[in-house]
Design brief:
Number of strands of chain A: 2
Shape of chain A: globular
Structural class of chain B: mainly alpha
Structural class of chain A: mainly alpha
Largest sheet of chain A: 2 strands, antiparallel
Number of domains of chain B: 1
Strand order of the largest sheet of chain A: 1-2
Shape of chain B: elongated
Distance between the termini of chain A: 44 Å
Number of helices of chain A: 20
Radius of gyration of chain B: 19 Å
Oligomer: heterodimer
Number of strands of chain B: 0
Helix content of chain A: over 70%
Number of helices of chain B: 3
Largest interface: A-B, 34 and 39 residues
Order of helices and strands of chain A: HHEEHHHHHHHHHHHHHHHHHH
Chain lengths: 512, 109
Protein backbone atom coordinates (compact mmCIF):
# COMPACT_ATOMS: atom_id res chain seq x y z
CA UNK A 1 0.00 0.00 0.00
CA UNK A 2 2.79 2.41 0.90
CA UNK A 3 4.42 1.75 -2.47
CA UNK A 4 1.28 2.94 -4.24
CA UNK A 5 0.92 6.02 -2.05
CA UNK A 6 1.84 8.63 -4.70
CA UNK A 7 -0.94 7.57 -7.07
CA UNK A 8 -3.70 7.69 -4.42
CA UNK A 9 -4.36 11.47 -4.63
CA UNK A 10 -5.16 10.94 -8.30
CA UNK A 11 -7.05 7.66 -7.99
CA UNK A 12 -9.34 8.54 -5.07
CA UNK A 13 -11.06 11.53 -6.73
CA UNK A 14 -11.19 9.66 -10.05
CA UNK A 15 -12.97 6.74 -8.40
CA UNK A 16 -15.31 9.09 -6.55
CA UNK A 17 -16.11 11.03 -9.73
CA UNK A 18 -16.83 7.87 -11.72
CA UNK A 19 -18.97 6.57 -8.87
CA UNK A 20 -20.88 9.86 -8.71
CA UNK A 21 -21.55 9.85 -12.45
CA UNK A 22 -22.43 6.16 -12.62
CA UNK A 23 -24.65 6.07 -9.54
CA UNK A 24 -26.48 9.30 -10.39
CA UNK A 25 -27.84 9.07 -6.87
CA UNK A 26 -29.90 11.47 -4.81
CA UNK A 27 -28.52 14.55 -3.13
CA UNK A 28 -27.74 12.94 0.23
CA UNK A 29 -25.79 10.02 -1.27
CA UNK A 30 -23.95 12.31 -3.70
CA UNK A 31 -22.90 14.60 -0.88
CA UNK A 32 -21.85 11.67 1.29
CA UNK A 33 -19.63 10.20 -1.45
CA UNK A 34 -18.08 13.56 -2.25
CA UNK A 35 -17.37 14.54 1.36
CA UNK A 36 -16.05 11.07 2.17
CA UNK A 37 -13.71 11.17 -0.82
CA UNK A 38 -12.37 14.59 0.12
CA UNK A 39 -11.85 13.70 3.77
CA UNK A 40 -10.03 10.55 2.65
CA UNK A 41 -7.94 12.73 0.31
CA UNK A 42 -7.07 15.10 3.12
CA UNK A 43 -5.96 12.13 5.21
CA UNK A 44 -3.85 10.84 2.33
CA UNK A 45 -2.42 14.35 1.92
CA UNK A 46 -1.37 14.33 5.56
CA UNK A 47 0.20 10.87 5.15
CA UNK A 48 2.07 12.07 2.05
CA UNK A 49 3.34 15.10 3.94
CA UNK A 50 4.56 12.85 6.74
CA UNK A 51 6.12 10.36 4.29
CA UNK A 52 7.90 13.05 2.30
CA UNK A 53 9.29 14.77 5.39
CA UNK A 54 12.07 12.17 5.66
CA UNK A 55 13.63 13.70 2.55
CA UNK A 56 13.52 10.67 0.25
CA UNK A 57 12.17 10.98 -3.26
CA UNK A 58 9.49 8.43 -3.97
CA UNK A 59 9.27 7.68 -7.67
CA UNK A 60 6.16 5.87 -8.88
CA UNK A 61 6.52 4.33 -12.32
CA UNK A 62 3.16 4.07 -14.05
CA UNK A 63 2.87 0.62 -15.62
CA UNK A 64 6.38 0.00 -14.27
CA UNK A 65 7.93 1.55 -17.36
CA UNK A 66 11.32 3.02 -16.49
CA UNK A 67 11.91 6.74 -16.87
CA UNK A 68 12.51 8.56 -19.19
CA UNK A 69 10.39 6.35 -21.47
CA UNK A 70 7.51 5.80 -19.10
CA UNK A 71 5.61 8.41 -17.12
CA UNK A 72 6.63 8.80 -13.50
CA UNK A 73 5.00 10.44 -10.53
CA UNK A 74 7.53 11.95 -8.15
CA UNK A 75 6.66 12.53 -4.54
CA UNK A 76 9.05 14.95 -2.91
CA UNK A 77 8.51 17.52 -0.17
CA UNK A 78 7.26 20.15 -2.59
CA UNK A 79 4.63 17.98 -4.25
CA UNK A 80 3.52 16.55 -0.90
CA UNK A 81 3.11 20.09 0.46
CA UNK A 82 1.08 21.20 -2.55
CA UNK A 83 -1.12 18.07 -2.55
CA UNK A 84 -1.79 18.37 1.18
CA UNK A 85 -2.70 22.04 0.83
CA UNK A 86 -4.99 21.31 -2.13
CA UNK A 87 -6.77 18.45 -0.36
CA UNK A 88 -7.27 20.55 2.76
CA UNK A 89 -8.77 23.38 0.70
CA UNK A 90 -10.93 20.78 -1.06
CA UNK A 91 -12.50 19.74 2.24
CA UNK A 92 -13.30 23.33 3.18
CA UNK A 93 -14.77 24.02 -0.25
CA UNK A 94 -16.99 20.94 -0.28
CA UNK A 95 -18.28 21.76 3.20
CA UNK A 96 -19.04 25.32 2.12
CA UNK A 97 -20.75 24.09 -1.04
CA UNK A 98 -23.08 21.89 1.00
CA UNK A 99 -24.91 25.05 2.09
CA UNK A 100 -26.90 25.19 -1.11
CA UNK A 101 -24.23 25.96 -3.71
CA UNK A 102 -24.11 22.39 -4.95
CA UNK A 103 -27.83 22.26 -5.68
CA UNK A 104 -27.69 25.16 -8.13
CA UNK A 105 -26.80 22.91 -11.04
CA UNK A 106 -25.99 19.30 -11.80
CA UNK A 107 -22.71 17.45 -11.39
CA UNK A 108 -21.09 19.94 -9.01
CA UNK A 109 -19.52 17.17 -6.96
CA UNK A 110 -18.29 15.19 -9.96
CA UNK A 111 -16.58 18.31 -11.34
CA UNK A 112 -15.09 18.99 -7.93
CA UNK A 113 -13.60 15.49 -7.80
CA UNK A 114 -12.15 15.82 -11.30
CA UNK A 115 -10.71 19.19 -10.30
CA UNK A 116 -8.97 17.58 -7.33
CA UNK A 117 -7.67 14.80 -9.57
CA UNK A 118 -6.20 17.29 -12.05
CA UNK A 119 -4.65 19.46 -9.35
CA UNK A 120 -3.07 16.56 -7.47
CA UNK A 121 -1.83 14.99 -10.70
CA UNK A 122 -0.24 18.25 -11.82
CA UNK A 123 1.61 18.52 -8.52
CA UNK A 124 2.81 14.91 -8.58
CA UNK A 125 3.80 14.24 -12.15
CA UNK A 126 7.42 14.18 -13.24
CA UNK A 127 6.69 14.34 -16.96
CA UNK A 128 6.03 17.46 -19.01
CA UNK A 129 3.42 15.99 -21.33
CA UNK A 130 1.66 14.38 -18.39
CA UNK A 131 1.66 17.82 -16.78
CA UNK A 132 -0.17 19.07 -19.87
CA UNK A 133 -2.74 16.29 -19.55
CA UNK A 134 -3.37 17.01 -15.87
CA UNK A 135 -3.59 20.72 -16.66
CA UNK A 136 -6.32 19.91 -19.15
CA UNK A 137 -8.16 17.74 -16.62
CA UNK A 138 -8.12 20.47 -14.02
CA UNK A 139 -9.09 23.09 -16.60
CA UNK A 140 -11.99 21.08 -17.96
CA UNK A 141 -13.30 20.55 -14.44
CA UNK A 142 -12.81 24.24 -13.69
CA UNK A 143 -14.84 25.16 -16.80
CA UNK A 144 -17.68 23.08 -15.38
CA UNK A 145 -17.32 24.55 -11.91
CA UNK A 146 -17.09 28.10 -13.23
CA UNK A 147 -20.42 28.02 -15.06
CA UNK A 148 -22.04 26.07 -12.21
CA UNK A 149 -25.06 28.01 -11.07
CA UNK A 150 -25.98 29.20 -14.56
CA UNK A 151 -26.66 32.71 -15.74
CA UNK A 152 -25.43 34.82 -18.61
CA UNK A 153 -22.58 36.40 -16.69
CA UNK A 154 -21.08 33.00 -15.89
CA UNK A 155 -21.49 31.83 -19.47
CA UNK A 156 -19.72 34.96 -20.71
CA UNK A 157 -16.89 34.60 -18.24
CA UNK A 158 -16.76 30.91 -19.13
CA UNK A 159 -16.30 31.64 -22.84
CA UNK A 160 -13.48 34.09 -22.17
CA UNK A 161 -11.83 31.67 -19.77
CA UNK A 162 -12.13 28.65 -22.06
CA UNK A 163 -10.84 30.53 -25.12
CA UNK A 164 -7.92 31.91 -23.14
CA UNK A 165 -6.98 28.51 -21.78
CA UNK A 166 -7.41 26.74 -25.11
CA UNK A 167 -5.00 29.26 -26.61
CA UNK A 168 -2.69 28.64 -23.66
CA UNK A 169 -2.90 24.89 -24.27
CA UNK A 170 -2.01 25.44 -27.93
CA UNK A 171 1.12 27.35 -26.86
CA UNK A 172 1.92 24.63 -24.33
CA UNK A 173 1.71 22.00 -27.08
CA UNK A 174 3.87 24.10 -29.44
CA UNK A 175 6.52 24.33 -26.74
CA UNK A 176 6.32 20.62 -25.89
CA UNK A 177 6.27 19.49 -29.53
CA UNK A 178 9.34 21.48 -30.48
CA UNK A 179 11.18 20.72 -27.24
CA UNK A 180 10.61 17.04 -27.87
CA UNK A 181 11.74 17.52 -31.45
CA UNK A 182 15.05 19.02 -30.30
CA UNK A 183 15.68 17.18 -27.05
CA UNK A 184 13.94 13.84 -27.54
CA UNK A 185 12.62 13.73 -24.00
CA UNK A 186 9.65 14.93 -21.98
CA UNK A 187 10.70 13.67 -18.58
CA UNK A 188 11.45 16.63 -16.29
CA UNK A 189 14.60 15.14 -14.79
CA UNK A 190 15.87 14.04 -18.19
CA UNK A 191 14.95 17.45 -19.65
CA UNK A 192 17.65 19.11 -17.55
CA UNK A 193 20.19 16.42 -18.45
CA UNK A 194 19.60 16.70 -22.19
CA UNK A 195 19.53 20.52 -22.08
CA UNK A 196 23.23 20.46 -21.18
CA UNK A 197 24.15 18.81 -24.47
CA UNK A 198 22.13 20.97 -26.87
CA UNK A 199 24.35 22.06 -29.74
CA UNK A 200 25.03 25.82 -29.94
CA UNK A 201 23.14 26.02 -33.25
CA UNK A 202 19.92 24.78 -31.61
CA UNK A 203 20.24 26.73 -28.38
CA UNK A 204 18.29 29.72 -29.67
CA UNK A 205 15.18 27.75 -30.58
CA UNK A 206 15.32 25.65 -27.42
CA UNK A 207 15.63 28.81 -25.30
CA UNK A 208 12.60 30.34 -27.02
CA UNK A 209 10.58 27.17 -26.42
CA UNK A 210 11.56 27.16 -22.74
CA UNK A 211 10.35 30.76 -22.52
CA UNK A 212 7.11 29.78 -24.23
CA UNK A 213 6.63 26.97 -21.71
CA UNK A 214 7.11 29.39 -18.82
CA UNK A 215 4.74 31.88 -20.49
CA UNK A 216 1.98 29.27 -20.39
CA UNK A 217 2.61 28.75 -16.67
CA UNK A 218 2.54 32.51 -16.12
CA UNK A 219 -0.83 32.63 -17.87
CA UNK A 220 -2.18 30.19 -15.26
CA UNK A 221 -0.56 32.24 -12.50
CA UNK A 222 -2.23 35.44 -13.84
CA UNK A 223 0.93 37.48 -14.17
CA UNK A 224 0.82 41.02 -15.54
CA UNK A 225 0.36 41.14 -19.29
CA UNK A 226 -1.70 37.94 -19.31
CA UNK A 227 -3.44 38.15 -15.94
CA UNK A 228 -6.40 40.40 -16.64
CA UNK A 229 -8.74 37.42 -16.91
CA UNK A 230 -8.57 36.56 -13.22
CA UNK A 231 -10.92 39.06 -11.51
CA UNK A 232 -13.60 38.55 -14.14
CA UNK A 233 -13.48 34.77 -13.89
CA UNK A 234 -13.14 34.48 -10.11
CA UNK A 235 -16.01 36.83 -9.40
CA UNK A 236 -18.29 35.18 -11.95
CA UNK A 237 -17.88 31.81 -10.22
CA UNK A 238 -19.88 30.96 -7.13
CA UNK A 239 -17.83 31.93 -4.09
CA UNK A 240 -16.93 28.44 -2.79
CA UNK A 241 -15.68 27.61 -6.29
CA UNK A 242 -13.63 30.82 -6.29
CA UNK A 243 -12.08 29.63 -3.02
CA UNK A 244 -10.94 26.47 -4.78
CA UNK A 245 -9.70 28.43 -7.81
CA UNK A 246 -7.21 30.17 -5.47
CA UNK A 247 -5.03 27.08 -5.72
CA UNK A 248 -5.11 27.16 -9.54
CA UNK A 249 -2.91 30.23 -9.79
CA UNK A 250 -0.50 28.45 -7.46
CA UNK A 251 -0.29 25.58 -9.97
CA UNK A 252 1.29 28.05 -12.40
CA UNK A 253 3.81 29.24 -9.80
CA UNK A 254 4.56 25.62 -8.85
CA UNK A 255 5.18 24.68 -12.48
CA UNK A 256 7.54 27.66 -12.99
CA UNK A 257 9.44 26.67 -9.86
CA UNK A 258 9.65 23.01 -10.85
CA UNK A 259 10.72 23.60 -14.45
CA UNK A 260 13.30 26.25 -13.57
CA UNK A 261 14.92 24.31 -10.73
CA UNK A 262 14.99 20.88 -12.37
CA UNK A 263 15.26 21.82 -16.02
CA UNK A 264 16.37 25.32 -16.88
CA UNK A 265 18.94 25.67 -14.07
CA UNK A 266 20.89 22.70 -15.43
CA UNK A 267 22.27 24.29 -18.58
CA UNK A 268 24.19 27.57 -18.71
CA UNK A 269 22.27 28.94 -21.69
CA UNK A 270 18.88 28.57 -20.00
CA UNK A 271 19.86 29.16 -16.37
CA UNK A 272 19.54 32.95 -16.52
CA UNK A 273 16.88 33.02 -19.22
CA UNK A 274 14.06 34.29 -17.01
CA UNK A 275 15.92 36.51 -14.54
CA UNK A 276 15.64 39.74 -16.54
CA UNK A 277 11.88 39.26 -16.95
CA UNK A 278 10.29 37.69 -13.93
CA UNK A 279 11.13 40.35 -11.33
CA UNK A 280 9.70 43.17 -13.44
CA UNK A 281 6.63 41.16 -14.39
CA UNK A 282 6.08 40.33 -10.73
CA UNK A 283 6.41 43.98 -9.67
CA UNK A 284 3.97 44.99 -12.41
CA UNK A 285 1.56 42.28 -11.28
CA UNK A 286 1.61 43.59 -7.72
CA UNK A 287 0.96 47.13 -8.99
CA UNK A 288 -1.89 45.87 -11.16
CA UNK A 289 -3.43 44.07 -8.20
CA UNK A 290 -3.24 47.23 -6.05
CA UNK A 291 -4.90 49.37 -8.70
CA UNK A 292 -7.53 46.67 -9.22
CA UNK A 293 -8.29 46.59 -5.51
CA UNK A 294 -8.89 50.33 -5.36
CA UNK A 295 -11.16 50.14 -8.38
CA UNK A 296 -13.22 47.25 -6.96
CA UNK A 297 -16.87 47.71 -6.11
CA UNK A 298 -17.44 44.29 -4.57
CA UNK A 299 -15.57 42.27 -1.96
CA UNK A 300 -15.15 39.45 -4.50
CA UNK A 301 -13.13 41.68 -6.85
CA UNK A 302 -10.97 42.84 -3.94
CA UNK A 303 -10.15 39.24 -3.03
CA UNK A 304 -9.48 38.35 -6.68
CA UNK A 305 -6.96 41.20 -6.78
CA UNK A 306 -5.43 39.95 -3.55
CA UNK A 307 -4.92 36.64 -5.36
CA UNK A 308 -3.15 38.53 -8.17
CA UNK A 309 -0.93 40.34 -5.65
CA UNK A 310 -0.03 37.09 -3.93
CA UNK A 311 0.84 35.57 -7.33
CA UNK A 312 3.14 38.53 -8.00
CA UNK A 313 4.76 38.23 -4.58
CA UNK A 314 5.40 34.53 -5.10
CA UNK A 315 6.88 35.20 -8.51
CA UNK A 316 9.24 37.77 -6.98
CA UNK A 317 10.64 35.11 -4.69
CA UNK A 318 10.70 32.41 -7.40
CA UNK A 319 12.42 34.73 -9.91
CA UNK A 320 15.77 34.31 -8.22
CA UNK A 321 15.63 30.82 -6.74
CA UNK A 322 17.86 30.46 -3.69
CA UNK A 323 17.17 28.41 -0.57
CA UNK A 324 15.91 31.37 1.52
CA UNK A 325 13.78 32.82 -1.26
CA UNK A 326 12.09 29.52 -2.12
CA UNK A 327 11.57 28.71 1.56
CA UNK A 328 9.96 32.11 2.07
CA UNK A 329 7.87 31.69 -1.06
CA UNK A 330 6.56 28.32 0.10
CA UNK A 331 5.54 29.60 3.52
CA UNK A 332 3.92 32.60 1.84
CA UNK A 333 2.19 30.31 -0.66
CA UNK A 334 0.63 28.15 2.06
CA UNK A 335 -0.59 31.08 4.12
CA UNK A 336 -1.83 33.19 1.20
CA UNK A 337 -3.79 30.28 -0.27
CA UNK A 338 -5.48 29.68 3.07
CA UNK A 339 -6.14 33.37 3.69
CA UNK A 340 -7.58 34.22 0.26
CA UNK A 341 -9.69 31.05 0.19
CA UNK A 342 -10.99 31.89 3.67
CA UNK A 343 -11.83 35.40 2.46
CA UNK A 344 -13.85 34.01 -0.45
CA UNK A 345 -15.80 31.78 1.94
CA UNK A 346 -16.30 34.76 4.24
CA UNK A 347 -17.60 36.80 1.31
CA UNK A 348 -20.07 33.98 0.66
CA UNK A 349 -21.28 34.03 4.28
CA UNK A 350 -21.52 37.85 4.17
CA UNK A 351 -23.41 38.09 0.93
CA UNK A 352 -25.94 35.48 2.04
CA UNK A 353 -27.01 37.86 4.80
CA UNK A 354 -27.19 40.93 2.60
CA UNK A 355 -29.83 39.78 0.14
CA UNK A 356 -29.53 41.10 -3.39
CA UNK A 357 -26.83 43.69 -2.65
CA UNK A 358 -24.61 40.65 -1.93
CA UNK A 359 -20.98 41.71 -1.46
CA UNK A 360 -21.25 45.12 -3.16
CA UNK A 361 -19.97 48.13 -1.26
CA UNK A 362 -23.37 49.71 -0.76
CA UNK A 363 -25.73 50.06 2.14
CA UNK A 364 -27.40 46.81 2.87
CA UNK A 365 -29.36 45.15 5.59
CA UNK A 366 -27.70 44.73 8.94
CA UNK A 367 -25.86 41.42 9.26
CA UNK A 368 -27.58 38.87 11.47
CA UNK A 369 -24.46 37.14 12.76
CA UNK A 370 -22.71 40.48 13.12
CA UNK A 371 -20.19 39.55 15.80
CA UNK A 372 -19.03 36.19 14.48
CA UNK A 373 -18.55 37.36 10.90
CA UNK A 374 -17.01 40.63 12.02
CA UNK A 375 -14.48 38.85 14.19
CA UNK A 376 -13.49 36.40 11.47
CA UNK A 377 -13.26 39.29 9.01
CA UNK A 378 -10.96 41.18 11.36
CA UNK A 379 -8.58 38.27 11.89
CA UNK A 380 -8.43 37.10 8.28
CA UNK A 381 -8.26 40.69 7.04
CA UNK A 382 -5.24 41.33 9.25
CA UNK A 383 -3.59 38.21 7.84
CA UNK A 384 -4.49 39.22 4.28
CA UNK A 385 -2.92 42.67 4.42
CA UNK A 386 0.19 41.38 6.15
CA UNK A 387 -0.12 43.23 9.45
CA UNK A 388 1.40 41.67 12.57
CA UNK A 389 0.98 39.29 14.31
CA UNK A 390 -0.56 36.86 11.84
CA UNK A 391 0.77 34.70 9.02
CA UNK A 392 0.61 37.38 6.32
CA UNK A 393 3.10 39.48 8.25
CA UNK A 394 5.42 36.52 8.83
CA UNK A 395 5.22 35.50 5.18
CA UNK A 396 6.02 38.99 3.94
CA UNK A 397 8.88 39.42 6.40
CA UNK A 398 10.37 36.11 5.24
CA UNK A 399 10.12 37.15 1.59
CA UNK A 400 11.63 40.55 2.37
CA UNK A 401 14.53 39.01 4.30
CA UNK A 402 15.18 36.48 1.57
CA UNK A 403 15.11 39.17 -1.11
CA UNK A 404 17.52 41.52 0.70
CA UNK A 405 20.36 40.07 -1.36
CA UNK A 406 18.51 40.18 -4.65
CA UNK A 407 19.12 42.55 -7.53
CA UNK A 408 16.42 45.08 -6.65
CA UNK A 409 15.79 44.77 -2.89
CA UNK A 410 14.44 48.31 -2.53
CA UNK A 411 11.84 47.83 -5.25
CA UNK A 412 10.79 44.47 -3.83
CA UNK A 413 10.42 45.86 -0.32
CA UNK A 414 8.50 48.87 -1.56
CA UNK A 415 6.13 46.68 -3.57
CA UNK A 416 5.44 44.38 -0.62
CA UNK A 417 4.90 47.20 1.87
CA UNK A 418 2.78 49.34 -0.45
CA UNK A 419 0.60 46.38 -1.46
CA UNK A 420 0.10 45.58 2.22
CA UNK A 421 -1.04 49.13 2.98
CA UNK A 422 -3.29 49.13 -0.08
CA UNK A 423 -4.93 45.88 1.04
CA UNK A 424 -5.39 47.22 4.57
CA UNK A 425 -7.00 50.40 3.26
CA UNK A 426 -9.40 48.61 0.91
CA UNK A 427 -10.36 45.93 3.44
CA UNK A 428 -10.96 48.59 6.10
CA UNK A 429 -13.18 50.57 3.74
CA UNK A 430 -15.11 47.37 3.00
CA UNK A 431 -15.45 46.65 6.70
CA UNK A 432 -16.84 50.09 7.40
CA UNK A 433 -19.54 49.51 4.77
CA UNK A 434 -20.40 46.01 5.90
CA UNK A 435 -20.22 46.37 9.66
CA UNK A 436 -20.45 50.01 10.73
CA UNK A 437 -22.99 51.58 8.48
CA UNK A 438 -26.33 50.74 10.00
CA UNK A 439 -28.04 50.11 6.69
CA UNK A 440 -30.39 52.39 4.84
CA UNK A 441 -33.81 52.75 6.44
CA UNK A 442 -36.27 50.33 4.98
CA UNK A 443 -33.60 47.84 3.96
CA UNK A 444 -32.88 46.85 7.52
CA UNK A 445 -36.04 44.87 8.06
CA UNK A 446 -36.64 43.57 4.56
CA UNK A 447 -38.47 40.27 4.90
CA UNK A 448 -36.82 38.68 1.83
CA UNK A 449 -33.40 38.77 3.48
CA UNK A 450 -34.08 36.01 5.93
CA UNK A 451 -31.08 34.57 7.63
CA UNK A 452 -30.79 30.96 6.59
CA UNK A 453 -28.38 29.16 8.89
CA UNK A 454 -25.71 27.67 6.66
CA UNK A 455 -24.15 24.94 8.72
CA UNK A 456 -21.75 23.62 6.07
CA UNK A 457 -20.49 27.10 5.27
CA UNK A 458 -20.06 27.98 8.94
CA UNK A 459 -18.10 24.78 9.53
CA UNK A 460 -15.90 25.52 6.52
CA UNK A 461 -15.30 29.06 7.76
CA UNK A 462 -14.33 27.83 11.20
CA UNK A 463 -11.99 25.22 9.65
CA UNK A 464 -10.32 27.86 7.45
CA UNK A 465 -10.14 30.33 10.33
CA UNK A 466 -8.47 27.66 12.44
CA UNK A 467 -6.03 26.91 9.62
CA UNK A 468 -5.05 30.59 9.22
CA UNK A 469 -4.47 30.93 12.97
CA UNK A 470 -2.62 27.59 13.08
CA UNK A 471 -0.29 28.51 10.22
CA UNK A 472 0.51 31.73 12.10
CA UNK A 473 1.27 30.04 15.40
CA UNK A 474 2.98 27.05 13.81
CA UNK A 475 5.16 29.30 11.67
CA UNK A 476 8.35 27.69 12.97
CA UNK A 477 7.59 24.08 11.92
CA UNK A 478 5.95 25.18 8.65
CA UNK A 479 8.89 27.36 7.67
CA UNK A 480 11.44 24.73 8.64
CA UNK A 481 9.55 22.27 6.40
CA UNK A 482 9.58 24.94 3.68
CA UNK A 483 13.31 25.37 4.13
CA UNK A 484 13.95 21.64 3.84
CA UNK A 485 11.74 21.66 0.73
CA UNK A 486 13.74 24.49 -0.80
CA UNK A 487 16.98 22.64 -0.16
CA UNK A 488 15.53 19.49 -1.69
CA UNK A 489 14.31 21.08 -4.92
CA UNK A 490 17.55 22.95 -5.46
CA UNK A 491 19.47 19.67 -5.18
CA UNK A 492 19.24 18.57 -8.81
CA UNK A 493 22.07 16.09 -8.33
CA UNK A 494 19.85 14.05 -5.98
CA UNK A 495 16.64 14.35 -8.00
CA UNK A 496 18.01 13.18 -11.35
CA UNK A 497 19.49 9.82 -10.23
CA UNK A 498 16.41 9.09 -8.12
CA UNK A 499 14.20 9.37 -11.21
CA UNK A 500 16.48 8.18 -13.98
CA UNK A 501 19.09 6.01 -12.30
CA UNK A 502 22.35 6.81 -14.03
CA UNK A 503 21.61 9.47 -16.68
CA UNK A 504 24.65 8.39 -18.67
CA UNK A 505 23.21 4.87 -18.98
CA UNK A 506 19.99 6.06 -20.66
CA UNK A 507 20.03 4.80 -24.23
CA UNK A 508 19.45 7.67 -26.58
CA UNK A 509 18.57 7.61 -30.20
CA UNK A 510 20.73 9.93 -32.26
CA UNK A 511 18.33 12.57 -33.53
CA UNK A 512 19.01 14.05 -36.95
CA UNK B 1 7.99 18.68 -48.40
CA UNK B 2 9.46 20.81 -45.58
CA UNK B 3 8.56 24.01 -47.40
CA UNK B 4 5.01 22.85 -48.07
CA UNK B 5 4.43 21.83 -44.43
CA UNK B 6 5.95 25.06 -43.10
CA UNK B 7 3.79 27.22 -45.35
CA UNK B 8 0.67 25.23 -44.46
CA UNK B 9 1.47 25.54 -40.75
CA UNK B 10 2.05 29.25 -41.04
CA UNK B 11 -1.18 29.78 -42.95
CA UNK B 12 -3.23 27.71 -40.50
CA UNK B 13 -1.76 29.60 -37.54
CA UNK B 14 -2.26 33.02 -39.15
CA UNK B 15 -5.89 32.24 -40.02
CA UNK B 16 -6.44 30.80 -36.56
CA UNK B 17 -5.06 33.85 -34.78
CA UNK B 18 -7.05 36.21 -37.03
CA UNK B 19 -10.28 34.33 -36.35
CA UNK B 20 -9.66 34.17 -32.57
CA UNK B 21 -9.49 37.97 -32.57
CA UNK B 22 -12.93 38.29 -34.23
CA UNK B 23 -15.78 39.43 -31.99
CA UNK B 24 -18.22 36.55 -32.55
CA UNK B 25 -17.96 33.25 -30.72
CA UNK B 26 -18.49 31.26 -33.94
CA UNK B 27 -15.34 32.61 -35.58
CA UNK B 28 -13.40 32.31 -32.33
CA UNK B 29 -14.24 28.62 -32.19
CA UNK B 30 -13.25 28.16 -35.85
CA UNK B 31 -10.01 29.99 -35.12
CA UNK B 32 -9.23 27.75 -32.16
CA UNK B 33 -9.88 24.69 -34.32
CA UNK B 34 -7.49 25.93 -37.01
CA UNK B 35 -4.90 26.74 -34.37
CA UNK B 36 -5.20 23.27 -32.87
CA UNK B 37 -4.76 21.69 -36.34
CA UNK B 38 -1.59 23.72 -36.79
CA UNK B 39 -0.32 22.64 -33.37
CA UNK B 40 -1.09 18.99 -34.06
CA UNK B 41 0.84 19.07 -37.33
CA UNK B 42 3.68 20.85 -35.56
CA UNK B 43 3.98 18.11 -32.92
CA UNK B 44 3.94 15.56 -35.72
CA UNK B 45 6.78 17.39 -37.45
CA UNK B 46 8.71 17.15 -34.18
CA UNK B 47 9.54 13.57 -35.19
CA UNK B 48 11.04 14.89 -38.48
CA UNK B 49 9.40 14.39 -41.85
CA UNK B 50 10.19 10.96 -43.21
CA UNK B 51 8.17 9.17 -45.84
CA UNK B 52 7.55 5.41 -45.87
CA UNK B 53 9.04 5.08 -42.40
CA UNK B 54 6.99 3.03 -39.94
CA UNK B 55 6.70 4.30 -36.35
CA UNK B 56 7.86 0.93 -35.07
CA UNK B 57 11.03 -0.71 -33.93
CA UNK B 58 11.45 -3.68 -36.23
CA UNK B 59 14.78 -5.49 -36.02
CA UNK B 60 16.78 -4.99 -39.17
CA UNK B 61 14.75 -2.01 -40.37
CA UNK B 62 16.87 1.11 -40.76
CA UNK B 63 14.24 3.64 -41.84
CA UNK B 64 12.06 4.25 -38.79
CA UNK B 65 10.33 7.26 -37.35
CA UNK B 66 9.78 8.22 -33.73
CA UNK B 67 6.39 6.85 -32.57
CA UNK B 68 6.04 9.14 -29.55
CA UNK B 69 4.89 12.33 -31.34
CA UNK B 70 2.11 10.31 -32.95
CA UNK B 71 0.91 9.26 -29.50
CA UNK B 72 1.20 12.86 -28.32
CA UNK B 73 -0.81 14.10 -31.30
CA UNK B 74 -3.50 11.54 -30.59
CA UNK B 75 -3.78 12.74 -26.99
CA UNK B 76 -3.79 16.37 -28.09
CA UNK B 77 -6.51 15.71 -30.68
CA UNK B 78 -8.77 13.96 -28.18
CA UNK B 79 -8.34 16.70 -25.57
CA UNK B 80 -8.79 19.46 -28.14
CA UNK B 81 -11.94 17.80 -29.45
CA UNK B 82 -13.47 17.58 -25.98
CA UNK B 83 -12.59 21.19 -25.17
CA UNK B 84 -13.99 22.48 -28.45
CA UNK B 85 -17.23 20.55 -27.92
CA UNK B 86 -17.57 22.13 -24.49
CA UNK B 87 -16.86 25.59 -25.88
CA UNK B 88 -19.52 25.13 -28.58
CA UNK B 89 -22.05 24.13 -25.91
CA UNK B 90 -21.11 27.15 -23.81
CA UNK B 91 -21.34 29.51 -26.80
CA UNK B 92 -24.79 28.12 -27.68
CA UNK B 93 -25.92 28.61 -24.08
CA UNK B 94 -24.67 32.19 -24.10
CA UNK B 95 -26.38 32.84 -27.44
CA UNK B 96 -29.65 31.37 -26.16
CA UNK B 97 -29.58 33.56 -23.06
CA UNK B 98 -28.42 36.80 -24.64
CA UNK B 99 -29.77 36.41 -28.17
CA UNK B 100 -26.45 37.44 -29.63
CA UNK B 101 -23.34 35.68 -30.85
CA UNK B 102 -21.05 38.51 -29.72
CA UNK B 103 -18.33 37.48 -27.27
CA UNK B 104 -19.39 40.27 -24.93
CA UNK B 105 -23.14 39.85 -25.43
CA UNK B 106 -25.20 41.20 -22.59
CA UNK B 107 -23.24 44.42 -22.22
CA UNK B 108 -20.57 45.18 -19.71
CA UNK B 109 -20.38 44.19 -16.13
Amino acid sequence: MMAHLPILPVLIPLAAAVLLLAANAGLAVTRAISVASLILLAAVGAVLLEAASDGTLRVYRLGDWPAPYGIVLVLDRLSALMVALTCFLGVAVVLAALSGTDTRGRYFHAFLQFQMMGLNGAFLTGDLFNLFVFFEILLLASYGLLVHGGGLERAQAGIAYVVLNLSGSALFLVALGLLYGFLGTLNMADFGVVLQSVSPADQGVVAVMCMLLVTVFLLKAAVLPIGFWLPHVYTAATLPVAALFVIMTKVGIYAVLRVTTIGLAAAPFTADLLQPWLTWLALGTIALGCVGMFAASTLGVVIANLVIISGGTLLLAVAEPTVPSIAAALYYLVQTSLVTAALFLLADALSRQRGDVADRFTDGPRLQSFTAIGLIYLVIGVAACGAPPLSGFLGKIMVMQAMSGSTHPVLVWTALIVSGFAAALVLARAASVFFWEPGAPGIADRPDVLYVPARGLSTALVVMFGAVVAVSFAAAPVSSYARATAEQILAREAYVPAVLGDPAAVQRERRP
Amino acid sequence: MEALVSVALGLLTACGVYLILRPTTFSVILGLSLLSYAVNVLIFVGARLKSTAPPLTIPGLSNQTDPLPQALVLTAIVIGFGMTAYLVALALKSKAESGSDHVNAGGER
